[in-house]
């Protein structure tokens, strides 16, 4: 999503629809800034949309997966080194040729990915930066701002962001004892501010409590188990119990509608966040039926892909069809990742074939046709590139999920003894 992505202070995160301007006007604005390469890519992707899957085989070349991982680590390294504080830039905008400020939320939940990739030093730098932003009440300052900002904005605390950061600090606490204390303080802040219903009514980026906060429930579960803290663990269960009624039997998930996007229509990005939260909770706390709770949603999305033979659009309608004006590639990486994870957890093999086909498309979208070295290795936020989700940008959380899915895909190759 993330909660911060469409806040007014961050123009690059403003959600818009393709109807904001004609193709001719879009291309004129790009070329007038001297970005002929960006205009050419925009035009080519507009012509290629919607992205079909029919010609893509379900087999995978291990070298292509390894290259994606290697190039993705390179993007993170350049971005982290750019600000030198340890935080990872929220995004790079090809039209302005600028990095956004380091993003606490997504830097936080990128830490487990970095550790899984063997990037311990970079994970430690990220964690140290986040701990330096911890407030007296245990929360983390969630503002997106360049280091050294002379007039910092008032402290911004967001529940979802703090949950994402808790994932990172918990992962570090499993490896290094000094991180146990900040992880516990952050978890205790989340427990202290949780309402009796299991949700939160304070420190929300939006007026309503979104279903994507299932990831906060998962983060508390994981922290409670890691820190041997039953009260923290139980708070995670309460969060997921409060959200469970929003999981409709037909697969639609209520509460994934973002203000300013489309009322009554879910955005695919938080829709899959919700699935991920329950899916990961199943790994931490089996026996609560968390995987079964979101299986109808995963099945519905896969059924839609099989029916249309194309990459899903950015919005999920109440009838489980997806809108096709553009797609948020971040959500497609998430969807590939949860497919691999679900199959690894239950061994049923229902979803990995489609996940591999989606990964083929994502790797093709990563292929750079731009002059920017800062673009290489990143995953575009939208397809077509000027679509209504961070247009002309690569963002760090889309890459995080691409790397997570790549690791899962690599695992399928390793366990099958080659190409599946």
Structure description:
52% of the residues lie in helices and 4% in strands. The model is unreliable at 1-20 (pLDDT under 50). The relative contact order is 0.15. It is mainly alpha-helical and 420 residues long. The protein starts with 22 loop residues before the first helix and ends with a helix. The chain contains 14 helices and 8 strands.
- Into which percentage range does the β-strand content fall? under 5%
User: How many distinct beta strands?
Assistant: 8
Report the biggest beta sheet as strand number plus sense, adding barrel if it closes. 3 strands, antiparallel
How does the helix and strand content classify structurally? Answer: mainly alpha
The CATH topology turns out to be Glycosyltransferase
Number of domains: 1
Shape: globular
CATH architecture, please?
Alpha/alpha barrel
Number of helices: 14
Strand order of the largest sheet: 2-1-8
List the secondary-structure elements in sequence, H or E. Answer: HHHEEHHHHHHEHHEEEHHEEH
Ranges where pLDDT stays below 50 over 5 or more residues in a row are 1-20
Helix share bin: 40-55%
| CATH classification, class level | Mainly Alpha
Mean pLDDT: 91
Question: Could you tell me the radius of gyration in angstroms?
Answer: 20 Å
- Give the terminus-to-terminus CA distance: 32 Å
């Amino acid at each position: 999503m993330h909660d911060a992505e469409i806040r007014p202070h961050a123009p690059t995160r403003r959600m818009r629809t393709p109807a904001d301007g004609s193709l001719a006007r879009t291309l004129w604005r790009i070329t007038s800034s001297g970005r002929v390469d960006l205009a050419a890519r925009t035009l080519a992707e507009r012509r290629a949309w919607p992205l079909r899957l029919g010609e893509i085989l379900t087999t995978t070349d291990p070298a292509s997966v390894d290259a994606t991982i290697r190039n993705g680590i390179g993007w993170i390294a350049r971005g982290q080194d750019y600000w030198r504080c340890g935080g990872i830039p929220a995004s790079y905008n090809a039209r302005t040729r600028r990095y956004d400020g380091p993003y606490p939320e997504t830097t936080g939940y990128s830490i487990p990915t970095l550790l899984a990739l063997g990037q311990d030093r970079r994970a430690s730098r990220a964690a140290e930066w986040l701990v330096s932003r911890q407030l007296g009440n245990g929360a983390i300052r969630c503002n997106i701002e360049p280091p050294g900002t002379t007039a910092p904005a008032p402290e911004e605390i967001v529940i979802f962001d703090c949950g994402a950061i808790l994932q990172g600090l918990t992962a570090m606490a499993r490896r290094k004892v000094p991180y146990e204390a900040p992880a516990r303080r952050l978890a205790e802040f989340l427990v202290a501010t949780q309402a009796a219903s299991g949700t939160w009514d304070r420190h929300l980026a939006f007026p309503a409590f979104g279903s994507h906060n299932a990831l906060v429930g998962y983060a508390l579960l994981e922290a409670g188990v890691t820190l041997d803290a039953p009260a923290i663990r139980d708070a995670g269960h309460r969060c997921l119990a409060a959200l469970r009624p929003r999981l409709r039997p037909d697969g639609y998930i209520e509460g994934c509608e973002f203000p300013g996007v489309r009322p009554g229509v879910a955005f695919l990005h938080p829709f899959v966040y919700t699935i991920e939260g329950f899916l990961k909770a199943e790994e931490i706390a089996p026996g609560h039926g968390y995987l079964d709770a979101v299986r109808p949603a995963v099945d519905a999305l896969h059924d839609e892909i099989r029916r249309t033979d194309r990459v899903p659009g950015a919005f999920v309608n109440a009838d489980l069809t997806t809108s096709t004006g553009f797609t948020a590639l971040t959500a497609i990486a998430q969807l590939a990742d949860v497919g691999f994870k679900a199959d690894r957890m239950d061994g049923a093999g229902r979803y990995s074939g489609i996940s591999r086909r989606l990964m083929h498309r994502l790797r093709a979208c990563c292929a750079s046709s731009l002059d920017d070295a800062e673009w290489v290795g990143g995953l575009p936020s939208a397809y077509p590139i000027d679509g209504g989700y961070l247009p002309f940008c690569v963002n760090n959380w889309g890459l995080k999920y691409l790397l997570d899915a790549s690791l899962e895909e690599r695992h399928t190759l390793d366990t099958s003894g080659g190409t599946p």
